[in-house]
Write a structure and sequence with these properties.
Layout: H1 2-36, E1 42-49, E2 52-54, E3 57-61, E4 66-72, E5 77-81, E6 87-90, E7 98-102, E8 108-113, E9 126-132
Parallel strand pairs: 1-4, 3-9
Antiparallel strand pairs: 1-2, 4-7, 5-6, 5-8, 8-9
This protein binds copper (II) ion.
The site of copper (II) ion (CU) has 7 residues, from loops.
């Protein structure tokens, strides 16, 4: 116990220094990005499980780019926004996530649904995407 305790301070100091340097590099990177272009898109996390999406209502703005990160809590599912080209497979729990980037959608209400057969309630697995118009009104 005593032997280990004597070693620890040195290791901790090196780890802290490395952390400090990494942190500095990250902050510098963000500053450069901010000066060069628009802020990164908004990320919305969506949980998918039999037989629902959460949140089941998502609101975005017409001129906004949004990244949806979809994770399953059980089996494989799909995420399809009816009337758009968005249709991704959401891997089963623990196997990662699906990414759907939304941009350039016209104002309106879109239905999204599961597009991979996942069980008895599959056909009821739906939600709504509301795209607000540029003037802020909701269709
Ligand atoms: Cu399904």
């Amino acid at each position: 116990m005593h032997g280990r305790a004597a070693l620890a301070p040195g290791i901790t100091r090196i780890a802290f220094l490395a952390l400090l340097m990494t942190g500095t590099a990250t902050i510098a990177g963000s500053a450069v990005r901010a000066a060069q272009g628009p802020p990164p898109p908004r990320v919305i996390e969506v949980t998918v499980e039999r037989f629902e999406f959460w949140p089941s209502a998502i609101t975005i703005a017409e001129d906004e780019t949004v990244v949806l990160q979809l994770r399953s809590e059980d089996t494989q599912h799909g995420f399809h926004i009816v009337g758009t080209g968005t249709n991704v497979t959401v891997p089963k729990r623990g196997k990662g996530m699906a990414i759907a980037t939304l941009s350039g959608l016209k104002a309106g209400r879109y239905t999204f649904e599961c597009s991979r057969l996942c069980g008895a309630g599959h056909n009821f697995m739906r939600g709504v995407l509301i795209v607000r118009a540029a003037d802020g009104s909701t269709p």
